[in-house]
Amino acid sequence: TQRVFSGIQPSGDLHLGNYLGAIRRFVPLQDQYDCLYCVVDMHAITVWQEPNDLRRATREVAAAYIAAGVDPNKAIVFNQSQVIEHAELAWVFNCIARIGWMYRMTQFKDKAGKNSENVSLGLLAYPSLMAADILLYKATHVPVGDDQKQHLELTRDIAQKFNNDYAASIAEQGLDAEYFPITEPMIAGPATRIMSLRDGTKKMSKSDPSDQSRISLLDDADGIAKKIKRATTDPEALPSEVEGLKGRAEADNLVGIYAALSDKTKAEVLKEFGGQGWGVFKPALADLAVATLGPVSSEMKRLVSDPATIDGILRDGADRARALAETTMAEVRKIVGFIR
Ligand code: ATP
Ligand code: MG
């Protein structure tokens, strides 16, 4: 079977980048694949999270999946920490992956900044846990934003090294020589990297300290309009051809957002708005964002107002995920040589 795994960290307010780059794309996949959509709470604590904020954000991410159209009866929706095999497999992978691989990750470098000796060990090992998330279910496809591409390559390296290092033992157990699959990223299409509204060279992130840098899924119409109005841009009018966006990161980003929200290409958007100034384009973009995100936002708010129901969905999802995870982990323990 072809299996899809993806996850989002409950590490702050979900934003337009999470929605366009990940959540929205989860929905059509649930009819074609076995899908697992995880709220990766163990990843979130690689940087400090207040416990109450973590609980709230965990429910919000689950609510966002469902509000966007993920059906928890089809896809498995759960939070990572309820399936402890994620941590167990991550430990094995910590002993497969090399430290040098981790130091090369741009996400680590970005998040650690100049302070790289004083961040958590978990932040460095993050990709190892991510590999465990994916490979525990032998997922073949992983829909994520472009920023996760390097981590997915590392997942392939870890799978390959595990398959190699333990080749003899895998054969002895009578298991497939490609024990862990070599996972395919799913990073196609527009909007795989939405940039900050303040700085066209930085991606939009939950962890950006500036609330003005992102459109949050829970922002109201007024908030969305204000943030778009204040978004950094150059003073030029919009070009009428896509080539005209070269070297104009902020303009390119806003046109890209418009294209993704309206399911059009950038060329089509520029055909409509080429020659217009920001005074015309920004309000149009704000209207479109409000119209698209509004229904998701109000459904999210309705869902989080009933935490018991969300927690029940997560528990049920975790039970289904665990059943799959246990099979893999039982095999891995034998491959590695752990006695039971
Ligand atoms: P944090 O700042 O805490 O890392 P984040 O905004 O990067 O938060 P993640 O939970 O790390 O969000 O990522 C969840 C999913 O959203 C991943 O698939 C990631 O690739 C995608 N994603 C994150 N930011 C963007 C973005 N700016 N554009 C498109 N996709 C994004
Ligand atoms: Mg991130």
UniProtKB/TrEMBL annotation:
ATP binds at Q9, P10, S11, G17, N18, G145, D146, D147, I194, K203, M204, S205, K206, S207. GO terms for molecular function: ATP binding; tryptophan-tRNA ligase activity. Keywords: Aminoacyl-tRNA synthetase, ATP-binding, Cytoplasm, Ligase, Nucleotide-binding, Protein biosynthesis. PROSITE patterns: AA_TRNA_LIGASE_I. Its main location: cytoplasm. L-tryptophan binds at D133. A motif ('HIGH' region) lies at residues 10-18. Homodimer. Belongs to the class-I aminoacyl-tRNA synthetase family. Catalyzes the attachment of tryptophan to tRNA(Trp). This is Tryptophan--tRNA ligase. It comes from Paradevosia tibetensis.
